[in-house]
Amino acid sequence: MAAEAAGMNLGHAVALLTAAVVAVPIFRKLNLGSVLGYLAAGLVIGPFGLKLFSDPEAILHVAELGVVMFLFVIGLEMRPAKLWLLRKEIFGLGLTQVLACCVVLSGVAMLGGLNFQAAVIGASGFVLSSTAVIMKVLDERGETSTPAGQRAVSILLLEDLAVVPLLAVVGLMASFNGDAAVTDRAPWGSVLMGLGCIAVVIAAGRWLLNPFFQILARTGAREIMTAAALLVVLGTALFMQWGGLSMALGAFLAGVLLSESSFRHQLEADVEPFRGILLGLFFLSVGMALDLAVVADQWRLILAGLVAFMTVKALVIYLVARLFRADQREAVQRAALFAQGASSPSSSTPPRSRRRCFRRRWRPR
Questions:
Q1: Which domain holds residue 265?
Q2: Which range among 24-38, 263-277, 344-358 has the greatest average pLDDT?
Q3: I want to staple 345 with a disulfide (CB 3.0 to 4.6 A). Which of 34, 271, 293, 294 is the partner?
Q4: Helix (H), strand (E), coil (C) string for 133-146
């Protein structure tokens, strides 16, 4: 039985790798991006395709770590001083876009027949865009570090920060209707918990992480340093999730706090391989979870709602971008990127600076 189970797990791994190796190059050759390639591959091998996998949710829970590590790598490239310079984009541009989209989409949902509470909750969910998809696309285009890319990152950061207030609003609406579920925290207690977790992460990153890596570096054990890098990423993500925030936000903060560390390049080099594999697995598992039977059964409602929400959201994002003096090209690109709602294309060849990092050993600069 053990040998049979091991063979089954090995077969799953081979199926995942085969699907990715076949689909992604084809889609990139067609200039459709690797994200669509992963999604299509997952759809083919998933429970609604060839049925090679029956439980995509189990894979998705593990694969979400790829998004976490991706945001950690992005954080390593953004020093605190640089992030401080983006505060107007985060709390100005980002907040304006989120609030404007939420108000307008709520109106669209109410015109579609939903009551006020359901419309606000549905619109709030659709306002939040998929960090994994947008960052993957920016990375593939090499635009993550450009001014336009940095503004997109700022909006994504604000959306991650907006999760806790939005959950608090949902809780308040439920309490007004007498439908509030029994929870351990009051809505505003969740906000305070989230802020407290951010403060703890900042304090730990400022005073503990660099001495921690210096102590481990003296051991000369490369595998321990790799394990420590993964511990920092996953531990911070888990801590932030416990506080009610997104794991991706926690990993990003950890990356920013380590961006000025003497071990920055080594951290990036060790996390990069895990990030790439798990991020691809994330998109594969999302593709597996697509239930075409449900889409076929409710295609009119799904298509109408999707077109209406995406069109209105794209228009609002375009107008906000122009209001903040973005040029025509950037406004159109941002509208196209952020028009999708949150869901659960970096070159596969690392840039030269990263390739050099792969050859470095664990030692301070």
A1: 63-279+299-358
A2: 24-38
A3: 34
A4: HHHHHHHHHCCCCC
